[in-house]
């Protein structure tokens, strides 16, 4: 899907948190995809297309990102995002999911799975905040800029010079030079489309707190949901050691797959590899569930 096709496919569902935007492909058991920040569900476009033959794949926009609309009074923290996911699923009449997260979406997925394990058939976690690793040194400027209220202005300026914007994305994409103008606009323009959007983006960034992932440590240690960990080894924000921290603390982890040189937002750059790996992981999780019956 290109950006126009993705835009035409977008739907909204009303929840107690606001109007949650999402795009879906396929039918059957549901797989829910949660994006990194500051991106949106467009991150998963190629992957949900590839997996539509095996799942009803849903890519939502989390609060404070993309096209989901919430008021300025809404809590945007990781725990609130996890509660939003539950409300979103309830609104669509979905009971259980295969849950996939990247970056902040992976942190929210940890919280959702830890607190509502009965709703998760399988879990896939990628480079993200884990336990107490926020903010990493390379992200301190982002937090300070958001708290000062200057990040949205910086983002608007960068959107005016996309070639220069790409230069600054080398810490999150392995090959930022391959990102099209269309892709950059699809990710970043919605974040500053209105004053409310810009303020909510900064509120979300300011709300990230390591205590929210530290607080679920004991719950993760009881989580037996079949779990896959995929980790880009070139990520300077979230080091590989955190993948193995998750493996040591989640008894349901089946394996850790290392992606040499890949960076935090690798689902954009490795859709075929991610899709094939998820397909195998889901098949294994189904087999385990059948064996347990």
Can you lay out the helices and strands and say which pair or pack?
Blueprint: H1 3-9, E1 11-15, E2 18-25, E3 30-34, H2 45-50, E4 56-60, H3 78-91, E5 97-101, H4 104-115, E6 120-125, H5 140-148, H6 151-159, H7 162-167, H8 181-188, H9 195-207, H10 210-214, H11 217-220, E7 227-232, H12 241-249, E8 253-259, H13 271-292
Parallel strand pairs: 3-4, 3-5, 5-6, 6-7, 7-8
Antiparallel strand pairs: 1-2, 2-4
Give a written overview of the molecule.
This protein is of the alpha/beta class and about 290 residues long. It contains 13 helices and 8 strands. It has helices at about 5-10, 45-50, 80-90, 105-115, 140-150, 150-160, 160-165, 180-190, 195-205, 210-215, 215-220, 240-250, 270-290, and strands at about 10-15, 20-25, 30-35, 55-60, 95-100, 120-125, 225-230, 255-260. The protein has an 8-stranded mixed sheet, with helices on both faces. The longest helix has 22 residues, at about 270-290. The mean pLDDT is about 95.
Side by side, the strands of the main sheet go: 1-2-4-3-5-6-7-8
Tally of DSSP β-strands = 8
* Overall average residue pLDDT: 96
Beta-strand content bin? 15-25%
Strand and helix order: HEEEHEHEHEHHHHHHHEHEH
Distance between the termini: 39 Å
Number of helices: 13
Runs in which pLDDT lies below 50 for 5 or more consecutive residues are none
How much is the radius of gyration in Å? 18 Å
Structural class: alpha/beta
What characterizes the major β-sheet?
A: 8 strands, mixed
Anisotropy-based shape: globular
Helix content: 40-55%
Label this structure with key terms.
single chain; alpha/beta; eight-stranded mixed beta sheet; 42% helix; 16% strand
């Amino acid at each position: 899907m290109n950006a126009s096709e993705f835009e035409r496919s977008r739907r909204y569902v009303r929840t107690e948190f606001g109007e949650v935007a999402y795009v879906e492909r396929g039918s059957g058991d549901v797989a829910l995809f949660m994006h990194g920040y500051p991106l949106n569900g467009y991150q998963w476009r190629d992957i949900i297309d590839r997996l539509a033959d095996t799942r009803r794949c849903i890519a939502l926009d989390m609060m404070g990102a993309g096209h989901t609309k919430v008021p300025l009074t809404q809590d945007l923290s990781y725990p609130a995002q996890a509660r939003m996911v539950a409300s979103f699923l309830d609104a669509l009449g979905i009971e259980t999911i295969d849950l996939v997260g990247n970056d902040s979406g992976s942190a929210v997925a940890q919280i959702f799975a830890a607190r509502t394990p009965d709703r998760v058939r399988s879990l896939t976690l990628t480079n993200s905040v884990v336990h107490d690793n926020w903010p990493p040194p390379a992200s301190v400027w982002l937090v300070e800029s958001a708290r000062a209220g200057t990040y949205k202005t910086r983002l608007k300026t960068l959107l005016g010079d996309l070639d220069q914007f790409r230069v600054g994305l080398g810490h999150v994409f392995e090959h930022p030079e391959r990102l099209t103008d269309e892709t950059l606009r699809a990710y970043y323009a919605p974040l500053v489309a209105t004053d409310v959007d810009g303020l909510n983006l900064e509120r979300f960034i300011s709300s990230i707190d390591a205590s929210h992932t530290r607080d679920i440590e004991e719950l993760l240690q009881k989580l037996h949901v079949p779990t896959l960990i995929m980790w880009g080894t070139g990520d300077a924000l979230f080091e590989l050691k955190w993948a193995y921290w998750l493996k040591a603390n989640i008894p349901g982890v089946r394996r850790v797959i290392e992606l040499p040189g890949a960076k935090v937002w690798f689902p954009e750059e490795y859709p075929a590899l991610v899709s094939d790996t998820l397909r195998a992981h889901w098949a294994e999780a189904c087999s385990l569930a059948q064996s347990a019956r």
